[in-house]
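Lab meeting prep.
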Amino acid sequence: MLFAFKRYDIKVLLLLFLTIAETLCCTYVLRSPIDAEIVAIIYFLSGLAIGILPLLPQKTQSIEPAEAKTPIAINRWLIPSGFILIGGFFIVQAITIIYTMPIDVIAADMLPQIQVMCQRLINGEKIYAPIMEIWNGKQPPYMPLMWLPFTFAQWAGIDIRFTTIVFFLLGFYFTYKMLPKNYAGNPMIVIVTFISLFMLLNFLMLKDKITFGRTEEGIVIAYYLFLAFALMSKKPILIGIAIACCLMSRFSLFFWVPMYLIYVFVYESRKQAYTITAVIAIIIFFVFLLPFGFKQPEYFLNIPADYHVGVDNAWRYNDDENGKYYQKFLGYARYFDISQIKLLHDLQIIVAAILPFLMLGIYRLINKRILLNTAFFGICTLKIVLVFFYNMIEVPYFYLFFVSTFFSYAILFAYMRQRNTVALIA
């Protein structure tokens, strides 16, 4: 039967189930009457499993040509059609959000800060200086590649959120490129995957609206989708560019980068490790250090202290009588009170620093015995790092978690591609 599942589909189905569970936990289920603590735990465990499953050894399970012919024919039009429909839905709804939700510093100060930084660049003014028109002197906290992409829109006089639309669509395109053109798996897998992805975007476009209406998070999502594509393509220049983009937007992969470079150097190719390192260094030098870092080193050294002030203010503003607030959010801030913010931050940094090298050590110990799926080492270890980083964040705003969730779809698509290749070659 056409829609009967085969052994070939089992691991993909399991990964799809985990991705759906993670998606539901950070969207509709979190807003349901279900205990938020249970939802947060399931979200964490689902994300962790998504990072582990593709690393498990592959078994060769071939597909007979006759069995593959019809699913491939269906999927050849189903996959691009699904992406076009979802992409069109996103464009329409994102534009609607832009025209119905004006940028408002009272509602959220992220985009107004970015507007000021871009305008300062256009005017030739000092960019990293207190923004007096926002909270009587807000220190701009953003690294260059978080705000620089918005400069053209600011210069052109159009809503800077159109930049987010363009970047997110580029990230979406990279996920599309990760799927095979001749996917021989059950078409129901493709259909359910698109339904899940649509439900995620439907929540963001119609239920939540904050992520694309009030924040710059769409650009961060795009950077990480680009990095996922680069890691699976094994092209060192692309990997270097993507890592640099992520490093100069968010610090969540800061400790993962040296571990990954060591892995490439030892287990893959020294030349590739050198190339990736050189590309990262060149971009950081010319985009960050030369125009900003060398001129104001003290400013960037003080960013952690400014961040702590912001975190402390967020807790105090939202505090309840028990010294806790984030009980209905994802993450593990729920287990800490206002007096333990520094402890949570310290734990996050310790875990972020140790975890990547712990995974590299585990890989070294067990790989010869188990023969892990090494093609996914980079993307899966990064997923695990993201899971821990965001679940241990001190102020667990909803929109922050969508970076890790979208990254799961990149892993799913890459895994579908690899399973497909193995089955057709066998």
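Slide two material, second protein:
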Amino acid sequence: MTDATASAGANGAAASPMRPETLAIAVHYGEPMSGRPGLSLRGGTYAQLPLTGAVFTEVDLTDVDFRQADLREAVFDRCDLSRANFLGADLRGATWHQCRGADVLLGGANLHKASLIGCELPQLRATGAVLRLATLHATTLAGADLRDAELDGTTWIDCTLSGLDLRDARLTHGTFSGCDLAGVAWDGARLERVVFHRSALLQRNFRGLDILGCQFAGCDLTGSDFSDAVLGRSSFQGATLEGVRFTGAQAANCLFPGALAAGCDFSGAVLTQAVFAGAQLAGARFAGAQLREAFFGDALLSGADLRGCELTYADFSRADLRGADLRGAAMFRTRLHRAQREGSQGVDRSAALGDDAPLAEAEQWRPAA
């Protein structure tokens, strides 16, 4: 069979691409394709071929046409995929290992449970592709186009994704860990229960997006914009939020414990039952925000702007409110237990609750030596 494959001409001319029927037969009988002399698939046309389980090792697949081919559980190991065309291909369970090549076409392809490991695929074009439960590890997709892609349960680990286009994509139950996300475009994307871990998201635009139940714990979001976003039950625990805008955001039940949020802008946001325990919020702006039953225990709020806030049943126990402005705030049964209030303005002592003496005594208890 191998003698019948495309081979070099008598004068050493470049080998012609293997014929489609020859490739299909070779794959059917389990013959792996490798970069041996005389084998060429470069520029070949293999659209719609049944190639389930094919193995390509160190093969030059430049300009190859795999449109709508059946490549389920295929293996591409150290292949050159420059300008390869996989439009509409079935790549479920496929493995791409240390492949390289710019401008690969994957629009509309199905990569359910596929794995991309150590690949360099800049300018990848995968509009509308399906990557449900796919895993991408140490892979470079700089400038890639994943608009309108399905990314349910997709895991991204230590990937370079700078300039990635995720507009109108659907990201649910996925994870970004240790990824470079500089310049990623999220416009129109929907993020639900996505985890961002050890990933820098400086000056990113999340304005007006649905970001439901997402985890940004420990991430650096300096200068990012979440204005008017829907952030229900998302967590920013320990995140760096300096200069971040949450103006008008719907952020009920969100978690901000230990966040570094000096100068953060929450003006007009809905933060009902949000948790800011131990957060650093010096100079933060909350003017007009809904903070009913929010918890600010041990938070630093010196110089914060809380004018006109709804603070009914909010808890500022042991918080630093020195120099804070609370004029016009609704403070019915707002807890100010042991809060530092020197220089603060507008505290409604007739409605708020002051120090709880028995609780203060209990908090100061120490075991006998």
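Talking points for slide two:
The CA atoms of residues 152 and 172 lie 5 Å apart.
The chain has a mean pLDDT of 92.
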